[in-house]
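Possible regression after last week's pipeline update?

I re-ran a chain I had predicted before the update to compare outputs. Posting the input and the new output here so someone can diff against the archived version. Not blocking, just want to make sure nothing changed silently.
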Amino acid sequence: MSKRILLPLALVAGVSLPAADAPARFHALLERYYTDYLRLFPIEAAINGDNDPSVEALWPNDLTPAFRKQVAATCQKYLAELARIDRKRLPATNRLSYDSLTWNLRAREEGTRQPLHLMPVNQFSCATLTFAQMGSGAFIHPFKTAQDYRNFISRAHGFSAWVDTAIANMREGMAKGIVQPRILMERVLPQLEALTKEEAAGNILFDPLKQLPASLDAEAKAQLSAGYREGLRAIALPAYARLHAFIRDEYLPRCGNHSGLGALPGGPAAYAYLVRLQTTTDLSPDRIHGLGLAEVARIRGEMEKVKAQVGFKGTLPEFLNHVATAPEFAPFKTEAEVLDGYRALESRVMAAVPKLFGRVPRTRFEIRSTEAFRAATASVEYISGSADGKRPGSFYVPIVDPTKMRTPNMGELFLHEAIPGHHFQLSLAMESPTLPRFRRYDASNAFVEGWALYCESLGKDLGIYDDPYQYLGMLLGDMHRAIRLVVDTGLHAKGWTRERALAYAAEQEGGSPEEQIPEIERYMANPGQALGYKMGQLKLRELRTFGEKTMGARFPLRAFHDEILREGALPLAVLDAHLRAWMKRPTGK
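New output (post-update):
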């Protein structure tokens, strides 16, 4: 899922337009902005299901100085246009668009001044992985027509140029001492190597050849197949091979043993930017670290209650280790059994949804296993459906070894990543007939992930936490996100080592430090992103508590949830002002 996050910055003000013209001009501005945005970021068009032929064959080289200048100029242009519109004369929902777009533009412009383009490759989330997913035929690039196949080879040319720029940027980073931690690049090498292999070796890039358009005759299929193979072998596979050789032979020997961004030149400032970006708050890393420690202590207290309830004799770490290792919590033998377990959860949740939600998405939903080439380093995730309804929202489960998949956390994972978490929030925004296009697809991390984490607490009402171990699974999920506040800031702002982070997470969650490796290395690869979950959840909890205290029995929980989802993903400060005003109206209307 794409993360386009905003900063808590002051609104612009300026020369006003006539009152009657303001909404119309503002709407036109938003449409022009979104069109320009997709030209800059065409992969977002694919994610959104936008079939504009002018962008569906493009792969952007977003690492060049020219690209960053173009992004900065676009942001400055629209900020200037916003300054000529009187925000006070806009209808309420347009004011939310005004505020959100202002934050978005300023955040994106600030990002062009950060040195993050010097570290463009990691094992968790980067263009090398996205391109391969798109080329698999099971992700966001369509393979329905012969033109779709040609479009992907066109994208491959752009990706090849991106790889060459990535190598040049990484060399610049080496000269400046701005490099990735060594362990992350060791994880990248096998990923890249798999994507240099031929079709017979199972390279996922050749998978679309298994689903050639049925409308083509045999001769046309043969021609399309031959051309597609030639394109991959001439463009995509050599690009992956060049990057693999560079990292193996030049970059990896120069990588450091550091674990966080704060250890690099300019790293503390870059991390402070990413913290603001991902949380939409002005809180410092130190303050967030303290919040994390407090949440860890609170959740441990709740876990102690569950331990007492089930009659476990031993310490809390022993109890958590029991839940993490006991065979009765790992009943699966096959991948199909794991997926069927999640499908059973889907049925139970959907039966109870009307109690808490008045609106449900039209977008179809499916449960899938994560592609084998990235399953070992992937987390459970949701990929949104398309606006045209052709692609369902997909809940991806990485299943490397089914016998190691455990049941206590399945409920909270489903509520978070699927229903009513990401699937409801992202789909309802995308389907909205009243939101401007950029707000249908905007994905403020603190809002999107905060909402999904908040949804984990709804399990009792949705019939998921029927026994203490399922409730413990929710607490473990909540603990996991609280730990992120401690560990992410520890790694990137307090000089924590990878090993210290692994030990701390294992101590709080149970299990061994080795089981924490994918998560800790995720935080190392994507500084700040993991902070948004807990920060957003805390804000939603605060707002719900405010409503319950001020409205008492009149507090309409179902309408509260619907209102949160009605306006799309908002920066936390914008959300706070909007919901407090909504709750002050009669019956929250």
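Follow-up from reviewer: compared with the archived run. Residues 1-17 have pLDDT under 50 and may be disordered. Marking as no regression found.
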